[in-house]
Amino acid sequence: MTAFELGVALNALTPRRLHRHSWLFITINLVIGNVIPLALGLWQQFRDPTATSIILILAALLIVLPLVHALSYRLHISGEDIVIYSGRLFKSVRHVPLANLHNVNLRRNVLHRWLAVAEVRLETAGSGGESEAVLRVLSLEDAQHLQRYLLSQQQSQSSPHHSALAQTEAQIPHTGDNLLPLPHGELIRLGLSTNQGLGISAFIFYVFIEFQDYDRMVAWIGGRLFDSLWLTEILSRWWIMALLALFVLWILNKLSAILFVYLGYSHFTLLDSGGERIQQQRGLLTQHSSHIRKTRIQVWRIQQNPSLRLFKRYRISIDTAVMDGGKGGERGISLLVPIAEQETIQSLLRHWQLPYFTQVQQLAARAWRRIFIAYVFKSSLYCGILALGLVGFSEKIPVQSAAWLWLALIPLQLIAAVRRAAFAGWHCEKGYFFYRDGWLWRHWHIIALKNIHAIALQHNYFDRRYRMASLILDSMGCSALNRPFAIRYLPQETAKILAKLLWQRQIKQSAKR
């Protein structure tokens, strides 16, 4: 499909509006994102008719002005660009080269499916944490035309070995086997191992505390617990109440996390077309459909937090040229494999022709000391902040509790430092760099050497004293949340040799280009 054929299919050879129901989805988005938080915040401060009038006026402005701006959207296929016109008073014209598109992400909730429309996000490598353009909304047929165009362009650039497959898949959707079915048990484990919905849980807890008589509630709980608890001989009642509040908040968080996981990852489908393109579909009420070429993936990250270790599960996230930017999966594919057993992870890595090394090069012999010192420094800082908070919070809670907490953490930090230093390691072979780190929170990183765009060798005062160095490897997919590789506490000579080898390889690759 050419750009002209795309323009004919979208009826966009001349500037056109979005779908006729766009105003409805724009209004819903504005109300949920702006008006409801504003109304709740002002209503808490001013509960009178005047405040109600102010809220209504501000709500009207927050809805009408952005709505007028959004309804001015025009879509135009001009040459090899998608041109987007927007604005009334302040007009904007944005050119998005079709050749730079990496992904066309479709988002469809129940209302979208009922009206046969889709929210379309056009994503490129250079747009940072935001989508290059958000078309809210197009008809489902027009959205699929955009996906077919992108698919045909990507597959026309692939190797001749896949040319026959490209001609077929450009016309019909891929219907291969699901590489990762997620039954209900896996969804529950995924919910228990994440903190999705933490903000909602905290808000519910705050509302409950706000509208209840706090003193009476404390007295009621204390009268039934404290007289029979031997724990009161060790901890004060305020500490017990704080621990009880955290436990209730944790229960709310896990319940909301399971709900969010069911809404976000039900009907999970992971498809692969000949190792060239990975497609992910998920969602119960709001469905997300996205795909990416394997060559666009910069870094593969295998992760395991304490909850996943308890369930003997792992997950795989990826850094791509289209970065998510912390938007919770609104951009492209960020969490590729939400949860899977070790055998499934290794099977998927073999399917994608990725190495997994069990024998690694260890860090420097005294790396555990550096890690332990860093842990002690951080705990001292946090306990100091806690002590200052206790001084301002209540005189009933002794400030010395923060000091006792700091002392209790020291042996745990020593164990964590030794275990982490023993687990961490690296390996470089078969065109890939493999690095693992962590103890309670473990992570494995796999990056193709051809995807390394910057190499830095760093050593501060403490590194020089311990004869260590840090090797920083940067790729195009790194963002504020997924920082570059930082292989710390390497022996100084090893770090220099490794950096020199990687630099020489990078120079050779640049010369070939």
Automatic annotation (TrEMBL):
Sequence ranges assigned to domain YdbS-like PH in this UniProt record: 73-150, 275-321, 426-500
Keywords noted in UniProt: Membrane, Transmembrane, Transmembrane helix
Name of protein: Bacterial membrane flanked domain
Superkingdom classification of source: Bacteria
InterPro entries, alphabetized: UCP026631, YdbS-like_PH
The keyword Ribonucleoprotein is assigned to this record: no
Keyword Transmembrane helix: yes
Transmembrane segments: 23-43, 49-68, 187-209, 238-263, 371-391, 403-422
